[in-house]
Write a structure and sequence with these properties.
Layout (H helix, E strand, L loop, with lengths): L1 E8 L3 H12 L4 E5 L6 H5 L32 H14 L4 E3 L3 E6 L6 E5 L3 E9 L6 E2 L13 E4 L13 E5 L3 H12 L4 E4 L9 E2 L2 E2 H7 L23 E2 L5 E2 L2 H6 L3 E3 L2 E5 L2 E4 L3 H25 L23 E3 L5 E6 L3 E2 L28 E3 L16 H13 L2
Parallel strand pairs: 1-2, 1-6, 2-3, 6-21, 8-19, 9-10, 9-19, 10-15
Antiparallel strand pairs: 4-5, 5-6, 7-20, 11-12, 13-14, 16-17, 17-18
Helix pairs in contact: 1-8, 5-7
C-alpha cells in the first residue's frame, strides 16, 4: 500500500486551505477530489448568473487573500471558479482529481488509517475529512409520486430561465438559492410560486456599509458553538440576500408586490397536487425577526463604539401577511410545469468507519480534532466558530488542524 503522512478527502476550499498549510509545514500529503476540476461546487452547482453572496474581501483563502480593486463587489461565478483554479496552480497543491474515497478505517494494531478509493488503497498517519455539509441534494421521497409531466430539478441543477419548460415554476425553499432563483425567474417573466421556510432575511447594506462588514466587526462570525440556542441550530438555512448586480436585499414581502405567490412549507404531494402547511405567516415573522435581530446587533455595536453615524430606518413591508393561506395546490390548474427543490443538501460521513458522529450525524470534535488520533474534520460551520465553513473563516480552522498534524 502506498503511504502518505496525510490524506485530505475533498478538494474544495477547506481541503485546499489545509493543503496550503501542510505545505508550509513541509508535510507530505495528497488531496483526493472526486470531481474532475477545481472549484467544482461553484462550477457545476451554481446557476449562470450566480455571484458571490459575500463581498470580495471575504475571499480569504490563505496565501491568496483578495487584493483586487473592488473589495466591496461580488465576483461572478466564472471568476470564482478561476480563483480556485489559480489557487491550486499557484501553490502547486497535490490534488488528484476524479478520485472517490469509499472508506476510512483504522488499521488493526496500528495508529495508521487505511483509505480505500475507487482507484487504490492507501495508508496514512493522518486523515482530514474536508467533504463539507453540502454533499447530496435534498429531494423529498414524495417527489416520486408527482406527475411525470412535471419537470423536477434541484437548485444545484438550475442554470437559467430559458433552460426550463414553458409555464409557471414552483420553487420549494426560501433560503439563499431559492430566493435568488425565484427573483431571477419572475424578473424573466415567469409566474412563480414559492414555498417559504424558516430562513431569515438580512439587509444588503445598513448605515453606510455592507451587512457582512458590520457583522465581521461585531464578532458575529466568531461566535462559538456554546452560543447556539440548540445543537440543531447549526443546520439553519442561510439568510436570503443577493450579490447580483452589485448586491441587494431580498425581501419576501417585495416578492408579493412583484407577483410571486407565497406558500407555506410543502408537506406532501401526489400526481398533480401538492399539500402545504398553514405556516406561511409564521415563517414570514421569523424572517422579519431575523432582520430585526441583525439590525440590533449592528446598532448596539455602533453605540458601544461611539460611532457618529446617521440613523437609518429600513423599509417596513408587511404585504406577505395579507396573502391567503393555501393548503393544497393543483399544479395543472396553475400551469406549473417545473418544480425546483431548493431545500439544501444532506450530509453523510459514513465513509469513516468509526463512531465519530453524534445523533444528528455531525462530527464529534473540538476545533476539527476528533478523539481518534490523526483524524480531523474541516470546512463545516460551527466546527470551532460559525465562520468555520465560510471563505472568511475556513483558513483559520485549516491552520489549526495543520498545526496539530505538524506537532504530532
Amino acid at each position: 500500500m502506498q503511504h502518505f503522512n496525510t490524506i485530505i478527502i475533498g478538494g474544495g476550499q477547506a481541503g485546499l486551505a489545509t493543503s496550503y498549510y501542510l505545505q508550509q509545514h513541509q508535510i507530505e500529503h495528497i488531496v483526493f477530489e472526486q470531481a474532475e476540476q477545481a472549484g467544482n461546487a461553484w462550477r457545476n452547482s451554481r446557476w449562470d448568473s450566480f455571484s458571490l453572496l459575500t463581498p470580495n474581501w471575504t475571499l480569504q483563502m490563505p496565501g491568496a487573500e483578495y487584493q483586487g480593486d473592488d473589495p466591496d463587489g461580488f465576483l461572478p461565478r466564472d471568476e470564482i471558479v478561476a480563483y480556485f483554479e489559480n489557487y491550486v496552480k499557484k501553490f502547486n497543491l497535490p490534488v488528484q482529481y476524479g478520485v472517490t474515497v469509499m472508506a476510512v478505517e483504522s488499521l488493526e494494531n496500528s495508529s495508521k488509517y487505511q483509505v480505500t478509493t475507487d482507484r487504490d488503497v492507501y495508508q496514512a498517519d493522518h486523515v482530514v475529512v474536508a467533504t463539507g455539509l453540502f454533499q447530496s441534494p435534498k429531494r423529498p421521497a414524495f417527489a416520486e409520486n408527482l406527475s411525470s409531466r412535471i419537470t423536477q430539478l434541484h437548485s444545484s441543477a438550475y442554470r437559467n430561465p430559458q433552460s426550463l419548460p414553458e409555464g409557471a415554476v414552483l420553487v420549494v425553499g426560501s433560503a439563499q438559492s431559492g430566493c435568488q432563483i425565484t427573483e431571477e425567474l419572475y424578473e424573466s417573466g415567469r409566474k412563480v410560486y414559492l414555498c417559504v421556510g424558516s430562513a431569515g432575511r438580512a439587509p444588503r447594506r445598513y448605515r453606510g456599509r455592507d451587512v457582512f462588514d458590520w457583522l465581521k466587526q461585531a464578532g458575529f462570525f466568531d461566535r462559538t458553538v456554546d452560543k447556539l440556542p440548540s445543537p440543531k441550530a447549526k443546520f439553519s438555512g442561510n439568510p436570503h440576500l443577493s450579490g447580483k448586480d452589485g448586491g441587494h436585499t431580498i425581501n419576501l414581502h417585495q416578492f408579493v408586490l412583484d407577483g410571486v405567490q407565497l406558500l407555506g412549507r410543502i408537506t406532501g404531494g401526489e400526481n398533480h397536487k401538492v399539500m402545504l402547511a398553514g405556516d406561511l405567516h409564521e415563517s414570514l415573522a421569523k424572517a422579519d425577526k431575523f432582520e430585526a435581530d441583525i439590525i440590533k446587533i449592528i446598532d448596539d455595536f455602533i453605540a458601544k463604539n461611539g460611532m457618529d453615524l446617521p440613523i437609518e430606518s429600513l423599509l417596513d413591508l408587511r404585504d406577505g401577511y395579507a396573502v391567503e393561506i393555501i393548503r393544497e395546490l393543483d399544479l395543472d390548474s396553475e400551469g406549473i410545469s417545473t418544480i425546483i427543490w431548493a431545500q439544501g443538501y444532506a450530509f453523510d460521513f459514513s465513509l469513516v468507519k468509526l463512531p465519530v458522529t453524534d445523533n444528528d450525524g455531525y462530527p464529534i470534535q473540538q476545533c476539527g480534532v476528533t478523539n481518534y488520533p490523526g483524524l480531523y474534520f474541516v470546512g463545516m460551520p460551527w466546527l470551532s466558530k460559525y465562520k468555520s465553513g465560510l471563505l472568511v473563516g475556513v483558513g483559520e480552522d485549516a491552520a489549526y488542524v495543520a498545526s496539530q498534524i505538524a506537532s504530532s
